[in-house]
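As the next step, I selected for study a record pairing a protein sequence with its backbone structure tokens, which the following lines show:
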Amino acid sequence: MSEYVRFLVRSFRLSFVGDWKYYTWMFVLTCVSLLGLNAYCKQFVFGLGETGMTDQVSWGLYIANFTYLVGMAAAAVMLVIPAYVYRNKELHDVVIFGELLAVAVIIMCLLFVTVDLGRPDRFIHLFERFNFPLSMLTWDVIVLNGYLLLNVHITGYLIFSAYRKREPNKKLFIIPFVLIAIVWAISIHTVTAFLYSGLGGRPFWNHAIIAPRFIASAFAAGPAFIILTLQVIDRFTSHSVPIGVFRLLRQIVTVAMTINVFLLVSEMFTEFYTGAGHSLSTHYLFFGLGDYHALVPWIWTAIGLNTTALVLLYIPHGKRGLWILNVACVLMIVGIWIEKGMGLIVPAFIPTPLGEIVEYTPTMNEILVCTGIWAFGLLLYTIMVRITVPVLNGELTVDTLHPSENTHAARRTV
């Protein structure tokens, strides 16, 4: 226990050490996070009237980000499967960065749910009447918090084992929890999809295809974000990422994105070809209803971005393969965020079951809160990566000092 406490203390000290680029990045993220906190304090005082949400459209930008990030967290399993199930040794270190990303993203998900509550102090009522297993909300609480604990355990154990220069016990600690994490990662997005499709009063979500679409889009946007993250780690840290990792992730992204586009086309065909009366929300999303068409530019932008990204992924890359892959990843991340966010959450409330059409536009206060949470998540992830890289490279172990600590030790000796 004393050794583990010493590891935590050394990790905490190490998170404050870096070059000017590291300090600048952390300073910017801290400032943006504080701006978001200030915006949330304003919302806490004056209520949800500071947002663009209304009685008719009760879910907006907060839940849109939550839905998107749940998929981002689930995507970490795409690195776990080839690393441990198919024993791809190149991914053993890289999978830790994916799991760390899942930890940061799940914390962001919980924060987005918290800020969406008008009275977060009443969250305790959920535990007073924990309507399990009938309520999908209780299922969501269980799978999200359970997935967070799983990832904290797996990454913490792997990093601490590397710190102690010991091989992790695969039979007792790694394989069982990794297999559970694979199933759990798929379940968190499936449960989130069921949360929407199980609402009978919102026909826009009443499709059995919602869950497969969620998983396909998650396994496209998540690895795309990890590709960009690994390149930053490879360039700005001493940790080298094998080129084979990027090839594998590109194959995963290409297959997942193809399935996602196919499922979207299938859903559009069902809605528009049948011409059913409950397809008004879909018509509003893609073409508008009369003078109401606020979301039309959003969804067609998403379709354009996703289609362009898919074409780039299928083009033979050659020498500029990584550059083209990066462009495709950025397009996918933005396109899927629009599709799963503003293009999925808001249209279900327009029109209302009574036929009212009340459009939704996020306020600046909402945008600041969302930006602050994103900055805080990136801040957490940066700190975790800053601690992990020296441990994996052998620069920070139980019997060695990090260069920054050597400086402090020399000063104490003098």
Notes: Confidence is low (pLDDT under 50) at residues 407-414. The two ends are 31 Å apart (CA to CA). The chain has 15 helices and no strands.
